[in-house]
Write a structure and sequence with these properties.
Arc Repressor Mutant, subunit A, two-stranded antiparallel ribbon, single chain, alpha/beta, D-Maltodextrin-Binding Protein, domain 2, 3 domains, disordered C terminus, 7-stranded mixed β-sheet, rod-shaped
């Protein structure tokens, strides 16, 4: 008994006319008759009786139609689910993201995809780039968004998203806010709120520039991986922050933050999507990657248009 023959029989039962049923199925009448005979042989009984007006269902035909009603609904659901999965409108996505600007970008992309389809679920890991690489190797995440310095070309592939300049930022009420130029000497004695990565490239650059100018090294006043803690310290306690321009602009939605124009800060972070070269990416994961790239291009265009 083939599912195709059962589906054809259901259409015959709906129309009670072989010609109209064949037309609905885009089949010839002989082909439909052959399907009915094949199904009757499988059941071992007649399913329809031919008449001048068309066909009528036998008792066995009525019983079969009653049984396959729920099956048709199940088959429809299965076909719809398969189509949604294939089109990227359903499924589960496990992704990783490094703390900072990529968090907000990823959140916006997930929201966009969630609005496209309610059948997609997300699991988002926020970890250091080293931890994300380990998760990717074990197949526990589909891909991650992080800086290019975390990229391992031997086993991973990447797609570029955007370049992000590191900057110094402060509260809009800070004494240095509004200046056209902020010197390293102006930063002397200021308190800083950062993550505990005191050996990061960008922080080392700032320390090195301060030292080259005969100035004391900047000092931590707040050490935390929490964005909320760091942003509150900068916004309300007068601390300075060191992060990317995109991250600061995104956090400025919630806090009154401004960039301080310090020309000595030149480090640029290259953000990318990173995944296994030979790993499987579901259609839903690929759709999320498309959205991330679209939003990165859109934000870059907005940034250029404001200059």
């Amino acid at each position: 008994m083939e599912l195709r023959d059962i589906r054809y029989f259901a259409v015959v039962a709906e129309h009670l006319n072989l010609s109209r049923a064949a037309e609905a199925l885009n089949l010839s009448v002989p082909a439909l008759s052959k399907s009915l005979r094949r199904l009757e042989e499988s059941v071992g009984a007649k399913l329809v009786q031919r008449s001048q007006k068309g066909v009528t269902l036998t008792a066995v035909g009525c019983a079969l139609l009653h049984r396959i009603g729920p099956l048709q609904g199940v088959l429809h659901d299965v076909r719809q689910e398969a189509a949604n999965l294939a089109d990227g409108r359903a499924g589960n996505i496990c992704i990783g993201v490094s703390p900072g600007a990529a968090e907000n970008l990823t959140a916006d992309a997930c929201a966009t995809l969630a609005n496209e389809s309610a059948e997609i679920t997300f699991q988002v890991w926020v970890h250091s780039t080293k931890s994300l690489g380990n998760l990717l190797r074990k197949g526990e995440i589909d891909f991650y968004v992080a800086s290019l310095q975390a990229f391992s070309p031997g086993e991973f592939a990447r797609e570029s998203l955007f370049d992000d300049q590191f900057i110094v930022y402060a509260s809009s009420s800070h004494r240095l806010a509004g200046r056209k130029c902020v010197t390293l000497d102006d930063l002397t004695g200021e308190r800083w709120a950062l993550t505990d990565n005191a050996w990061s490239v960008q922080w080392q650059q700032l320390c090195r520039e301060m030292e080259n100018h005969g100035l004391p090294a900047p000092r931590f006043a707040m050490n935390s991986h929490s964005q909320a803690v760091r942003m509150s310290s900068v916004a309300y306690a007068g601390f300075l922050g060191l992060s990317t321009r995109r991250f600061m602009q995104q956090e400025a939605r919630k806090y009154n933050l401004v960039e301080l124009p310090v020309k000595e800060i030149t480090y640029v972070r290259h953000m990318s999507i990173i995944y296994r070269k030979d790993g499987y990416l579901s259609p839903a994961a690929r759709r999320l990657i498309e959205i991330l790239k679209e939003q990165s291009r859109g934000n870059a265009g907005s940034k250029h248009s404001q200059r």
